[in-house]
Amino acid sequence: MGFHDKLASAWRATDSMLCVGLDPDLGKMPRSLGREPSAVLRFCREIVDATAHTACAFKPQIAYFAAIGAERELEQLCAHIRATHPNTVLILDAKRGDIGPTAERYASEAFERYGADAVTVNPYLGTDSLQPFFARAGKGVIVLCRTSNPGSGDLQSLDTEGRPLYERVAHLAVDRWSSLGEVALVVGATYPAELARVRSIVGDLPLLVPGIGAQGGDVEATVRAGRTTNGYGMMINSSRAILYASSNDDWVAAAQRAAERTRDEIRAVQA
Amino acid sequence: MGFHDKLASAWRATDSMLCVGLDPDLGKMPRSLGREPSAVLRFCREIVDATAHTACAFKPQIAYFAAIGAERELEQLCAHIRATHPNTVLILDAKRGDIGPTAERYASEAFERYGADAVTVNPYLGTDSLQPFFARAGKGVIVLCRTSNPGSGDLQSLDTEGRPLYERVAHLAVDRWSSLGEVALVVGATYPAELARVRSIVGDLPLLVPGIGAQGGDVEATVRAGRTTNGYGMMINSSRAILYASSNDDWVAAAQRAAERTRDEIRAVQA
To answer: What's the predicted TM-score (pTM) here?
Structure first.
């Protein structure tokens, strides 16, 4: 089953558009777990098992593992998600982008080494830099379009012959990339007007939407702007607000409650 | 000594603008080295020691290590370069780009974990995504501007209010980023006219120029387009043409000869 079908199944099975982002920060994790790379694996496994019923997708952010030399732990975490929650979509958040032969290596990293269903990529280098990702049959390629950070407009909002750059990326996604593979786009919840604009361009294409929770995006505005006619269409990511809901002994239960609450907030608007 | 000063010293000490790219491909390396991740370390160390006198910089491409789970070998390679060739600039080619807190983790990966002097980054997310890299005093931040691949124009050549996008990145580099840290730009040798245009915008800012050798960029056109008034100004990268100069037992000597030849070709035009 390819990425688009697996995601559609996950939306229906969980009735949830929540994506749980796995950004394990040794400085914010419960002290009782210790400060070794192995603590990151134990932390993320507990979060995953406590929130799997609330989420259509898990999204480990590779930078948090790479900064502390925890690639083996990321491999084990991905293997755990695939084995224990095989119907949940596994997204490697890596935002890779490089020339063809190098992109081929990054595709191996995401899809063979970590066994992800989808990977986030950066479009700045153009279509040929994305080709090695699209060439992996059934794998998802989630391209940055309008990111959630304050400075995202520096380049993405520049007027390019009558359209902002991020709209041009949205057009490329439907007009060109959707014939090459299973594409999706990243659009931040912090820009609901732009999210609505992208939705109007890309039809039913799935959107990965970071920026609710710690980044301040509004859930109601996000769901209204980005849902599709069947009520789904998005992977709405929350990382820090779930992972660090409590720094006390109740952190697993607190994370579960935060995930359920966010799923329910999304559902309430979606109906 | 910061990145800009270290690079200027390396240019003078070696009288070379050659940058040796370390893209270790198990499928192309001499079979006698074996096919384990440790072979990658042995291969790169031999190349480094045989070519250090020819090069102002070494540039390991992290994707080649990540695809095969060889991060420990990359750590050891970087430690070897720093210890044995301390005056040669060490560039981690990673093309990272992410929102602030995540970019902070990538900056740790490049500068603390691997001890690089500089890292390549992608500007699509805007200035705030680059800030954590600039904030590391003395470290180099090499921003993608006009990349060497065939499809680089898809976004980079779009007209943005009277200028192509890559020129806007060049203007951001001098007008905004150069006050935040030690910036440089990536401009491909495969586009000498654009290289000349970027040089005219950025003054003496260093340029990392991939695309000669296997990618087909012309050395003479590159040097004429990108040199500065002191004759230097570029890190002209060659990877495959040096690393795989021979697949026989003479591969170390062949790599050395290829590096010396490329350095000499560059010097001949530079004078």
So the answer is: 0.98
Does an H or E element contain A154, and which? helix A153-156
Q: CA quadruple A30, A33, A38, A41: dihedral positive or negative?
A: negative
> Could you give the CA distance from residue B187 to residue B198 in angstroms, rounded to a whole number?
8
Contact B71 A71 (CB under 8 A): yes
* Calpha distance B206→B232 (Å, rounded): 9
CA distance A4 to B23: 33
Q: Which value does ipTM take for this structure?
A: 0.97
- Mean of pLDDT values over A111-125: 98
DSSP state of A33: G
Domain count, chain B: 1
Question: How far off is chain B from A134, nearest CA to CA, in Å?
Answer: 15
Q: Which positions in chain A touch B105 (Cβ < 8 Å)?
A: 61, 63-64, 66-67
Residues 6+ apart with CB under 8 A from A177: A127, A130, A134, A141, A143, A183
Q: Alpha carbon of B210 to those of B13, B20, B35, B218, B241: distances in Å? A: 22, 10, 27, 11, 12
In the structure encoding, which two tokens stand for residue B199, read together? Answer: 């040089």
CB atoms within 10 A of CB B20: 30
- φ, ψ of residue A158 to 5 degrees: the values are -60, 140
Catalytic site residue B28?
Answer: no
Alpha carbons A230 and B55: distance in angstroms, whole number: 58
Which domain does A65 fall in, by range?
3-270
Give the domain CATH number at B53.
3.20.20.70
Distance CA B220, CA B238 (A): 14
Q: Are B97 and B67 in contact (CB under 8 A)?
A: no
Could you tell me whether strands A159-160 and A89-96 are parallel, antiparallel, or unpaired per DSSP bridges?
unpaired
Residues of A in contact with B156 (CB under 8 A): 124, 126
pLDDT tens for B109-146 read 999 999 999 999 999 999 999 999 999 999 999 999 99
pLDDT at B213: 81
Amino acid at A178: S
Sign of CA dihedral B233, B192, B95, A214: positive
pLDDT digits (tens, 9 = 90+) for B34-53: 999 999 999 999 999 999 99
